[in-house]
UniProtKB/TrEMBL annotation:
Superkingdom, taxonomy of origin: Bacteria
Species the sequence originates in: Ureibacillus manganicus DSM 26584
Chain ranges of the Transcriptional regulator DauR-like HTH domain: 152-209
Pfam families: HTH_22, PAS_6
Annotated YheO-like domain residues: 6-114
Protein's name in the database: DNA-binding protein
Amino acid sequence: MDSNVQQYIPVADVIAKTFGSDVEVVIHDLTIPQNSVVYTINNHVTGRQVGQSFNHLITDVLLSQNFTNDYSANYYFHTDDGRLIKSSTVLIRDHDKKVKGALCINIDTTKITENINWLSSLVPHVPNKLSESTLPFENTNEMDHINEIANDLIDKTIGNKPVDLLRREEKIEMIRFMEQKGVFLIRGTIDRVAEKLNISKVTVYSYIDEIKEKNHKG
């Protein structure tokens, strides 16, 4: 585990112990993207396990209009069993300002929602609104940071392997991982991957189409 990431383990513990068992904290080491989860506490909230990869980092954090100053607070997602999770994520950087990891706080809102609904039933005509902004992300400075992070994830995913010796299937598997994690939603990443794998952009697009076709059939 990267030493810059490891130092956040006590922070994760104190958050979870302060706010109780419905609050999960997950620490990612983004120097190992495919197995980025390196620490969890109260992981019954989402079932995150050490050795898994990130899920929402790109789509709900880096590409969110709320992403600023290295964090995105109060975004939502659903677990496989339908529970609504309120989440916040902050990036972890080293002394050279390079992104090394992320700390995520996930709150199971089930009990909160049940209590809100019960209180609302006692006070008729009180609106119960939950809004979520979906405006496009335009901050140029933040996009520079996002591109830097995406490029670093690409570099770490491909690693220092001799790409000319990689089999076609190995390249497709790397592209599959990055496509599933939303890497290609970020502008310029196709070019970066093509350069790193020493293939053309057209080949990258064809691999992505092949992956999507197989997923659709599957």
